[in-house]
Hints:
Blueprint: E1 4-7, E2 12-15, E3 18-21, H1 24-31, H2 49-62, E4 72-85, E5 104-117, E6 122-128, H3 133-147, E7 154-158, H4 166-170, H5 175-182, E8 185-189, H6 199-211, H7 219-235, H8 246-252
Parallel strand pairs: 4-7, 7-8
Antiparallel strand pairs: 1-2, 2-3, 4-5, 5-6
Amino acid sequence: MDHSFVDASSHRTEYFGICRTRNHSDDLKKTKLKPHLKKQWCIPAKSSSEFIARMEDVLQTYALAYDPDIPLICMDEQPIQLLNHSRPPQTMKPGQVLREDYEYVRKGSCSLFLFTEPLAGWRHVQASERRTKSDWALQIQELLEVHYPEAKRVRLVMDNLNTHTISSLYETFAPEHALALAKRLEIHYTPKHGSWLNIAEIELSVLTIQCLNRRIASIEELQVEVSAWETERNRIQKSVDWQFTTEQARGKLKHLYPEI
């Protein structure tokens, strides 16, 4: 059965009760609408005191002067899908890009932990099979005892994922060890829907563009690739120059502040 009909008098076509004019595309051009396009980003709630409090705490932390005894470290995680070629890709030739079959073979997934000290141009990336509380706790142990054993304490900026808590240390280590690690942490959580405030997320974006824009079949291969990226980026002392301040936030993001 044909569920559509044309009304000659109004030049409309109806499909299951949905009415579209024949010159619908012209109407979209007139209004400059682009329904086939969209953008996605974190949209914080308006008049959120919790968002503002955490945002200003992070911004004030970023504004502190460099202190080697209390380094500022940002951390973030990223899930990675491991993929292999279903067929060998064709070798590149002069004037011709690498050609690979659109089909791929799933080889599981893993996670990347990234730590960065923006004021020192340092970062460290570690691939992990999981992203549990114990995995995070082990990463924190390595950060404090291997990379920063002499630091009095570490200012740690990260999101408030349920694994990113002091309790994770107590679920992984003996109480004495967990307490010793916790006492050397000064945690600053980014607000919900405010991941853009984490410099480690910027580093992960650079890593994805420069290193992960291809199929990687195993966690071992992934670790080799990210370690090479880490070594080169640390060698050239590349860093993120954070410019956004609390004063700018109070002006540009005034609509997010509670009305008093």
